[in-house]
Write a structure and sequence with these properties.
Helices cover about 40% and strands about 25% of the residues. The protein is built from 15 helices and 17 strands. The strands form 3 sheets. Strands 1, 2, 3, 4, 5, 14, 15, 16 and 17 form a 9-stranded mixed β-sheet that branches. The protein has a 4-stranded parallel β-sheet with strand order 6-7-8-9. Bound molecules: zinc ion. The site of zinc ion has 5 residues, from loops.
Amino acid sequence: MKTLIREATVVTLQDNHEIIRDADVAVDGQTISYVGPQKLWEENFDRVINGQGKLLLPGFVNAHGHAAMTLFRSYADDLPLMDWLEKRIWPAEGKLKREDVYWGTMLAILEMIKCGTTTFSDMYFFMDQVAEAAEEAGIRAVLTRGLIGIGEMAEKGLEESEQFVKTWQGRGNGRITTMLGPHAPYTCPPEFLRRVMLLQESLAVPIHIHLAETKDEVERITKEYGVSPTVFLKNIGLLERTVLAAHCVHLSEEDMDILKEYNVSVAHNPGSNLKLGSGIAPVPDLLSRGITVGLGTDGAASNNNLDMMEEMRLTALIHKGNRMDPTVISAREALAMATRESAKAVFLEKVGIVAPKMKADIIMVDLQRPHLTPQHDLVAHLVYAAQPSDITMVMINGQIILENGQLTTLDEEKIIFQAQQRALHLVQ
Ligand SMILES: [Zn+2]
């Protein structure tokens, strides 16, 4: 399948500032084959799309989340973290069946595609169903079976992880990749983390872990092991692997130096951190050290949507307010974090930039909107003013998944019906 998009305005993300006006973008199969000035094409295309008045950019990469938690959206709000988890989320999660996770994930994918997300990184359980949903929907996914290292489920989790990685790595025409997911330092004791590291050596996939999300976590780990969660992971050798750390809210200067030294990538989840009262991650300090920071929504029970435009805007706003400095996290930095940097953070080399040889994961935004007029600065528009409803086209791996608001691979009505019915059963 060959597609040509004509006369679009392209934000390439190749560097932070490059915008090409009246550009042609050609896609051959799964890959972008041309980005540049309009030209007379001699070759034939299967589809030609008019890009006039549209902004074309890489799709958003959601670097950290728990997709099926859409089923708990608005079920547990405005609660302290431990009440949220112990009284609401864990009891409801205990009732989850495979089919629930499938439909909860489908609901998440539906929402994410409509919000311009072309890749999501997920940590949950019943991951075969998550992978099936991603494979069917056509979205790119980086999937992790979450592991709790205490109790009787620990062993089973390791076995399932190994099976999951062996079954799904590279499936869906390469759209699905996998990681190993020890949940967090406070749920995974050292002996268990060593088991994960052994498994990691044989499977050679990255590790995805929650790190320093709350002050309480730092206090618990410091009390138990005498060091911060970051130093704890370093001391047992885990940071020598390829690691994505989610949250990283409560870090010391030493912790940040360690993350840099070990090339750990970070998923920043501003909406979730604010809503759960966890705090504000020191993102300007991570960026100034050259650490790769992507953006994530976390699960819909602590956000409560999966809209990466909102995360991007929060990122560009909260650090300015927090530091009382309007120059902190520019619109360009926020957009890069939601796309190119997030792709890097989840270890996808061919995603996040609109350029030849990159995967054709792109979206188009309609600029003919009151809130996007006039067009002094298109990147500022994307970060500070654009809305998901401005998105007119989503292409993933060269396949158009959303066009003029219509989904090509998903039955929206059926997904909403199934998710609604199943969610009600879980909280009865
Ligand atoms: Zn999380």
